[in-house]
């Protein structure tokens, strides 16, 4: 059972990102402020849901949220400032776009760069613990998936409509055979032993 808020005193936004571990494309982040009475029985970490459920929940979240925003940071910026800093930047950009100013922020993970001196709390596996982080994970994931589906039309050989830029066997083999394209992150090594073994 997910919890509605980390604290009750301040207007709270949940933040999460999608695409950190990818070899190609941008990282996307979302920020969501939900009403006090928000509830949805299906809402949880986006990785635990089917694509169909994520898309349905995205509609519900966007209709019911008090405020939400999504922002990308592209592959070139990721190469310039590294993926961790790019993830923080994407979250800050999403927070900048919110129509309601949050007074407290909860973030999925264990690290965050302070935003406008607003109090925050990092929550490990927070997308499976708090509604607003779970909602942010769904928005970040679905917006990024849509973006990668569009890039797939331009570069179909990398199978991005299925792997969304993650290092699957097929994606890595395509890079080894054909090289990288303009959307690949040049600082990410396709032969890194930490990636999927094929």
From TrEMBL:
It is found in: Cytoplasm. Its EC number is 3.1.26.4. CDD domains: RNase_HII_bacteria_HII_like. Manganese or magnesium. Binds 1 divalent metal ion per monomer in the absence of substrate. May bind a second metal ion after substrate binding. Its cofactor is Mn(2+); Mg(2+). The keyword Metal-binding applies. Its main location: cytoplasm. Endonuclease that specifically degrades the RNA of RNA-DNA hybrids. GO terms for cellular component: cytoplasm; ribonuclease H2 complex. InterPro entries: RNase_HII, RNase_HII/HIII, RNase_HII/HIII_dom, RNaseH-like_sf, RNaseH_sf. GO terms for molecular function: manganese ion binding; RNA binding; RNA-DNA hybrid ribonuclease activity. It catalyses: Endonucleolytic cleavage to 5'-phosphomonoester. GO terms for biological process: DNA replication, removal of RNA primer; mismatch repair. It is an enzyme of class 3 (hydrolase). Belongs to the RNase HII family. This is Ribonuclease HII. The keyword Oxidoreductase does not apply. Keywords: Cytoplasm, Endonuclease, Hydrolase, Manganese, Metal-binding, Nuclease. HAMAP family: RNase_HII_B. A divalent metal cation binds at residues 16-17, 108. Residues 10-198 form the RNase H type-2 domain.
């Amino acid at each position: 059972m997910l919890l509605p808020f980390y604290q009750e005193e301040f207007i709270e936004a949940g933040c999460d990102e999608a695409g950190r571990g990818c070899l190609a494309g941008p990282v996307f982040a979302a920020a969501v402020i939900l009403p006090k009475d928000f509830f949805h029985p299906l809402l949880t970490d986006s990785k635990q849901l089917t694509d169909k459920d994520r898309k349905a929940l995205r509609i519900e979240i966007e209709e019911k949220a008090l405020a939400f925003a999504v922002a990308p940071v592209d592959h070139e910026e990721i190469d310039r400032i590294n993926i961790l800093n790019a993830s923080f930047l994407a979250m800050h950009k999403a927070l900048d776009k919110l129509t309601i100013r949050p007074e407290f922020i909860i973030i999925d993970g264990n690290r965050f760069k302070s935003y406008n001196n607003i109090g925050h709390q990092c929550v490990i596996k927070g997308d499976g613990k708090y509604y607003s982080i779970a909602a942010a994970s769904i928005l970040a994931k679905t917006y990024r998936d849509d973006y990668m589906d569009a890039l797939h039309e331009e570069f179909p050989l990398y199978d991005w409509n299925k792997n969304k830029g993650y290092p699957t066997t097929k994606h890595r083999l395509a890079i080894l055979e054909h090289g990288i394209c303009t959307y690949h992150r040049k600082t990410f090594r396709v032969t890194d032993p930490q990636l999927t073994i094929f």
